[in-house]
Amino acid sequence: MHEIADTAVVDGTDVTLEPADSIEVDQLARTLCGDPRNLVDDPEWVARARHASDELPVSLRRSVRRFRRYSGSSGVLVVHGLPVDEAMLPATPSVADSVQRAATVAAAVLAMVACGLGDPVAYLAEKSGALVQDVVPVPRRETFSGNAGSVLLTFHNENAFHQHEPDYVLLLCLRADHDRVAGLRTACLREVLPLLTAASRETLFAPEFVTAPPPSFGSDNQARPPQPLLFGAADDPDIRMATIATTALTPRAETALAEFGRACDTVARTTKLIPGDLVIVDNRVTVHGRTAFRPHYDGADRWVQRTFAIADLRRSRDHRPDDGYVIAR
Fold it and tell me: pLDDT tens track of the chain, all 329 residues?
């Protein structure tokens, strides 16, 4: 596993904003959150964020646009130096399913960048359909394999079980953990595929796997019928899997899934985020997870805010009431 320093450049997928550009982003974000009545989940606010995204610094807009077209061998874009208004941050939330409803600088940054990738989207069954969600440790949920836990979070695609899983996962760091040990782990299929045997690659394209919904979706959502793990172009496929939720249905599928897991660990990259770092994960080709860390529950714990984006929102029109941004089923 390769460790990536906070300011390292890997495959040209790191962008560091100049101070003047960071100030420009901050000013744009503040225009979106100046009125306390502004709500992140209001479609009119999202429309304003989309308009404002046209004014983002050229270097940021170009990087996001290039990433949308082709996310590279790592499937990850890291943007350093974004404003998060650290001086005005409240205590890190410590309750389950916390979300960001009021417009803030950080939420505005996430919304503007998401609009550059397509459209922000949320899922009604997860965190009540909020477009911006808190990823924070929660007391007594340390061993939970999800965003509320603090043990190792295993590799997965976000909402891999869903017919309309997000194309991109955006993670903006507001606070790092106390010990600066928590790291985002990623493994891109473009680096994994060359390590797999021909037999395993063939099996992963067969409908011999079932992926259950994550615990955060509750018990009402059921797994889809058996599906392949890989689909699409043989030389650059997409992937749907979650280590703890994907079950192989045949002996050869079990062998292929185990080989895939080992290959992910071999190519894995770890990125330790600091405040103002935004990571965009191409959820179609890259799995992600997180290393373990120790929360203190003192109001200064690790705080990451998350938003999903879909490149073609219309594909999910029959799942979104009133053509909104929340997938209801």
Answer: 333 333 333 454 799 999 999 999 999 999 999 888 899 999 999 999 999 999 999 999 999 999 999 999 999 999 999 999 888 899 999 999 999 999 999 999 999 999 999 999 999 999 999 999 999 999 998 998 888 999 999 999 999 999 899 999 999 999 999 999 999 999 999 999 999 999 999 999 999 999 998 766 655 556 679 999 999 999 999 999 999 999 999 999 999 999 999 999 999 999 999 999 999 999 999 999 999 999 999 999 999 999 999 999 999 999 999 999 999 97
Please tell me the distance from the alpha carbon of residue 114 to that of residue 107, in angstroms, as a whole number.
Answer: 10
Residue 33 half-sphere exposure toward CB, CA atoms < 13 A: 23
Measured between alpha carbons, how far is 181 from 291 in angstroms, rounded to an integer? 8
Alpha carbon of residue 97 to chain centroid: 16
Tokens read off for 218:
């509750």
31 alpha-carbon distance from chain centroid: 25
Distance of alpha carbon 209 from alpha carbon 206, whole angstroms: 8
The answer to whether 53 touches 112, Cβ cutoff 8 Å, is yes
Amino acid at 89: L
Burial class (CB in 10 A: 0-12, 13-18, 19+), 198: exposed
Q: Which tokens go with 286?
A: 């890259």
Cross-strand bridge partners of residue 310:
119
CB of 272 within 8 A of CB of 98? no
The pTM of this model reads 0.93
- The rounded distance, in Å, linking the Cα atoms of 174 and 135 is 10
DSSP three-state, residue 268: coil
Dig out the tokens for 205 from the structure: 């394209």
